[in-house]
Specification:
Blueprint lengths: L1 H15 L10 H7 L4 H4 L18 H16 L11 H5 L4 H12 L10 H13 L10 H4 L19 H13 L9 H6 L4 H12 L3
Helix pairs in contact: 2-6, 4-6, 7-11, 9-11
């Protein structure tokens, strides 16, 4: 918990020093380069298959970081960045400008809305907005915001309306350490304290979070 608090303190200090971030990706160029991405992520950035993430409306800085990390995962043999059997290979031929253009394009689109099952609203809202002090779990809203929109400067992703199945898979990966490209290991520390039930509830709750 101290590690998470320290990371947030450092982060807030960094953000206060900068009120804006420049991103020089080209939306039109990104659209032309996105043809291959459409097979899994959809022509409008809303993945038709729920095991793949929706990219539409995601922060450009976050998409750019993930593409860089995915490429690094392949070039380092999984020792650095983020290693994914499919996406790391897809990111390999991309130049830095390609990544920026794709990030700019997908962030310009609108993410499709989802729905939250009624049976998870109460528990999901409690865990998302307040966390669980007894287990040392901070509120998800502290980083991702009350509506799950995240922040561009901090590269915290928008997680509202995301496919529950994808969120669940990523929380499991953070928990078991197979995904470790999060800021100062914050998500790994938190995920290790989540039960299977917690992950199930949070994933479904976020699917329709407004």
């Amino acid at each position: 918990m101290k590690k998470i608090a320290l990371s947030l303190t450092i982060l807030l200090g960094t953000l206060s020093a900068s009120n804006a971030t420049a991103f020089d990706g080209d939306v039109n160029a990104g659209k032309e380069k996105s043809t291959t991405c459409a097979a899994c992520h959809g022509p409008d950035g809303n993945a038709p298959v729920n095991i793949y993430p929706k990219l539409a409306g995601q922060h450009a800085d976050y998409i750019y970081k993930q593409l860089k990390d995915l490429k690094l995962g392949m070039t380092s043999g999984g020792k650095e960045g983020r290693m994914d059997p499919v996406m790391s290979g897809m990111a390999m031929p991309l130049s830095d400008q390609d990544m920026k253009d794709l990030a700019a394009y997908f962030s310009s689109l609108n993410m499709s809305e989802g729905a939250t099952p009624k049976d998870v609203v109460e528990v999901g809202q409690q865990l998302y907005k307040a966390g669980d002090a007894e287990r040392g779990i901070p509120a998800c809203a502290a980083c991702h915001g009350p509506r799950g929109n995240g922040t561009s400067l901090a590269k915290f992703p928008k997680i509202s309306f995301q496919h529950p199945e994808y969120i669940k898979s990523q929380l499991v990966k953070f928990r078991d350490g197979t995904r470790n490209n999060d800021l100062n290991g914050m998500m790994q520390d938190i995920a290790k304290k989540l039960t299977d039930k917690d992950i199930e509830v949070l994933s479904k709750y976020l699917g329709g979070l407004h």
